[in-house]
User: Which sequence fits this backbone?
């Protein structure tokens, strides 16, 4: 039997602390509701949970498997840190009893060297409690230490194991240790964004960063059938599923792009092809944003990474969007993006050898310093409005 299985009928809870949320003034309640919703849905696959909102804290009550729920919640944006905890009344005896139980458990699970540098840290939200935080620290330490002198060594400044106590007006929480969360803001609280998702390494990371700042991301992906096979589309779905760890439900719009690319190939200056493809993508993504109620676009562009991402070309491309374009990776080195992609688990998927639509009809010598007026002249030569309306009409929308 694993530790997690032993948690069935768990009276343990997950104490969730949120950072930035707390400063959102009168929007706070909205943020808290969104966070609670996201917590319930992230935990759902492991256990049904109930969320209790306290001042500055959320208490998550899983039906079972509190440890596993806690590990899952580490990936919910908006959470600064969390602890698996127990609750009791706020007298010293009750606290000491739980402290014993939590410490025993923590030590059972501990595999590193002993004695472990240790301390008790009490936080009082009820300032009328008869004892100060330091007094409680000492009282509890005196109760739990003697029996564990060989395994714990008090070190107030460099404790590795911290027995946390939060004393409140009517009760107290007791926990051994805390996990850091990802921070950020609950997905959905900042509204919707349309992310242009290619099968590359960058755009999934950009989407993740937008989610981290509270965006509910809708994906737009352009494909060039029959030049590019079905594999590319499957790859997009795989990426979106992977990102589901942070945003459980996502809408993916798959937009046919071949006819637009062919028209650009046939009638526009070769060096401008990639910039013109991108401009068309921006317009179509803007259109999608209108339909989905999204307020901005997100791309994986990074300054100077490739020819189409010089300052001049980004200016030409961005000018085609009618909404702000967020480029979370704009000043990242490729390696910095790769490091994040690896942590997210999108890297392996992005690395699958499926070509992106932009590799179709690649120009031999792409323009480096594109000029907007030349883009406009080139676009005037093809029936873009019609082609784009047609692409939009044949867009396929899937909820993943
Ligand atoms: P990525 O790794 O995200 O593909 P990249 O460095 O390869 O980025 P480009 O291929 O030039 O850069 O694309 C720049 C951005 O344009 C991408 O990050 C993405 O946001 C968008 N984009 C490119 N191709 C597509 C596509 N087929 N569908 C949707 N968006 C795309
Ligand atoms: Mg790419």
Assistant:
């Amino acid at each position: 039997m694993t530790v997690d299985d032993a948690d069935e009928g768990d009276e343990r809870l997950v104490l969730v602390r949120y950072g930035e949320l707390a400063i959102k003034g009168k929007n706070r309640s909205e943020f808290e509701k969104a966070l609670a919703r996201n917590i319930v849905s992230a935990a759902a696959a492991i256990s049904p949970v109930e969320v209790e909102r306290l001042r500055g804290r959320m208490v998550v009550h899983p039906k079972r498997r509190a440890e596993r729920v806690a590990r899952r919640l580490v990936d919910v944006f908006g959470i600064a840190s969390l602890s698996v905890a127990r609750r009791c009344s706020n007298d010293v005896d009750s606290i000491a009893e739980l402290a014993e139980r939590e410490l025993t458990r923590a030590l059972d699970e501990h595999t590193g060297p002993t004695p472990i540098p240790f301390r008790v840290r009490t936080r009082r939200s009820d300032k009328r409690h008869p004892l100060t935080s330091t007094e409680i620290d000492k009282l509890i330490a005196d109760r739990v230490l003697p029996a564990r002198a060989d395994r714990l060594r008090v070190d107030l400044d460099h404790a590795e194991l911290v027995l946390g106590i939060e004393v409140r007006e009517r009760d107290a929480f007791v926990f051994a240790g805390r996990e850091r969360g990802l921070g950020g803001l609950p997905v959905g609280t900042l509204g919707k964004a349309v992310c242009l998702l290619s099968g590359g390494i960058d755009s999934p990371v950009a989407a993740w960063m937008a989610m981290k700042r509270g965006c509910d991301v809708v994906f737009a992906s352009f494909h060039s059938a029959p030049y590019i096979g079905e594999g590319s589309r499957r790859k997009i779905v795989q990426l979106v599923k992977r990102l589901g760890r942070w945003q459980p439900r996502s809408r993916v719009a798959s937009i046919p792009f071949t006819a637009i690319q062919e028209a650009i190939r046939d009638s526009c200056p070769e060096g401008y092809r990639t910039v013109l493809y991108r401009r068309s993508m921006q317009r179509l993504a803007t259109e999608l944003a209108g339909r989905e109620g999204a307020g901005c676009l997100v791309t994986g562009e990074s300054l100077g990474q490739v020819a189409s991402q010089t300052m001049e070309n980004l200016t030409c491309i961005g000018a085609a969007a009618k909404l702000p374009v967020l480029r979370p990776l704009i000043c990242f080195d490729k390696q910095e993006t790769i490091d994040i992609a690896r942590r997210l688990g999108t890297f392996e998927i992005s690395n699958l050898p499926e070509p992106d639509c932009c590799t179709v009809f690649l120009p031999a010598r792409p323009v480096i310093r594109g000029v907007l007026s030349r883009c406009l002249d080139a676009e005037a030569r093809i029936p873009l409005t019609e082609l784009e309306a047609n692409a939009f009409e044949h867009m396929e929308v899937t909820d993943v």
About this structure: The chain is about 40% helix and 20% strand. The radius of gyration is 26 Å. The CA atoms of residues 256 and 391 lie 6 Å apart.
